[in-house]
Amino acid sequence: MGFKGLKPISYGGREVWPLIEGGKGVSATNHMSSGAWAAAGGIGTVSAVNADSYDSDGNVIPQIYRAATRKDRHQELIDYAIAGAVEQVRRAYDIANGPNGMRGAININVLWEMGGAQQVLEGVLEKTKGLVTGVTCGAGMPYKLAEIAARFNVNYLPIISSGRAFRALWKRSYHKVADLMAAVVYEDPWLAGGHNGLSNAEDPARPEDPYPRVKAVRDVMRAEGISDDVPIIMAGGVWFLREWNDWIDNPELGQIAFQFGTRPLITRESPIPDQWKTKLRELEPGDILLHRFSPTGFYSSAIRTPFLRNLEARSERQIPYSRVEAGEHTVQLDVGVKGKNFWVAPKDLDRARAWNGQGFTEALKTPDDTVVFVTPDERAVIRKDQTDCMGCLSHCGFSSWKDHDDYTTGRLADPRSFCIQKTLQDIAHGGPVDENLAFAGHAAYRFKQDPFYSNNYTPTVKELVDRILTGD
Fold first, then answer.
1. Could you give the number of structural domains in the chain?
2. DSSP letter at 431?
3. Closest to 397 (Cα-Cα) out of 427, 360, 368
4. Do 338 and 320 have their domain in common?
5. How far is CA 203 from each of CA 210, 290, 297, rounded to the nearest angstrom?
6. Residue 121 — very low, low, confident or very high, per pLDDT cuts 50/70/90?
7. Of 147-151, 194-198, 240-244, which range is least confident?
8. How many CA atoms lie within 13 A of 48 on its CB side?
9. Distance between CA 31 and CA 185 in Å, rounded?
């Protein structure tokens, strides 16, 4: 028995604790962390988002793109992604089922919005038959998840942020493959790390209590005839189980399980570099920013590093313009641009000249009829990163890439965003934390407050799972 009678659940033909490790893409979870989580009796999650492969000496193979065109680099990316995820799944499975393994389960996690998501998922499942128990998938509306799961006979666990989103997926697709839907992951859009499923109806600045939202998901599930034994997995902001006391064994909610994304980052098996772990120990409340700079167009949550603060500042150095004199756009912009057909408001001309004087001498057009002012060095990095795009997303606002049809979104590339593949690869493999995107959930400040981590203590995954099961 775990905390307050927390009982194992049946998953994939085995008894496991209702504790799920959140899969964190581009090598922030890998076989070591997920294999250990499953060995400790929970459900470990291998990230199948650009996972690492290894050479014959066991060193990580750098993902270098050699092809001349984006389309060909995109194929290289898919090949890397399949090879890496297959390798991670095999290794995780071996750890989970080793001499000390308690036969927990291994899931894989994919982002539906990643470039070539369907090809990658099918490629991985084809080569890991019998090793993967289930697939978690969010970031977008993964209608095809159910039919792919059916083809490979694995469970699927959709990630949603509202009852409305679940209803849409169920009605359109999932009702046809009801028996393989093992759980529904409710990922709280204000608390979870990484990409967040905030809809236009929700205010990023006004978090809502998760309880009524999860009850609304269960109400939709019940209305569709889905058993209360199909768990809803609460993801985002989960730290101490004792804080979720009234969720466990609550007939209003049905079976509940809990996902831990941030807490497993500081474990001995966690593959993230030590400097990233150190940064996590130093955070204060409010140091995680819910922002809109991701090239996916989704909101996402990350540590407010200088990298993120720089993006915030860049967007503040932004003014609207017209191609002709119109409305309040009565003066011509004379800094940062070539040509005379940039008409702006007089107050914005003054701001632009001030930025120019501070060294932000380059004005870059955005898709929203504005220009942002950057330094020549920033401009060079932005242009190079846009040119080097390897199509890691299905639609990329930063580079205007699209992974199908004519391979372009048809919109201007957006210099207010960034290359997400580049920064996530860099931070995961030892690049400076302050110069990169560091995803984290909004409870990450609790590392500093939780006595379990005092004196720089780093638990094993097994110690962490055992601790969680006590309610702490």
1. 2
2. -
3. 368
4. yes
5. 14, 11, 16
6. very high
7. 194-198
8. 36
9. 22
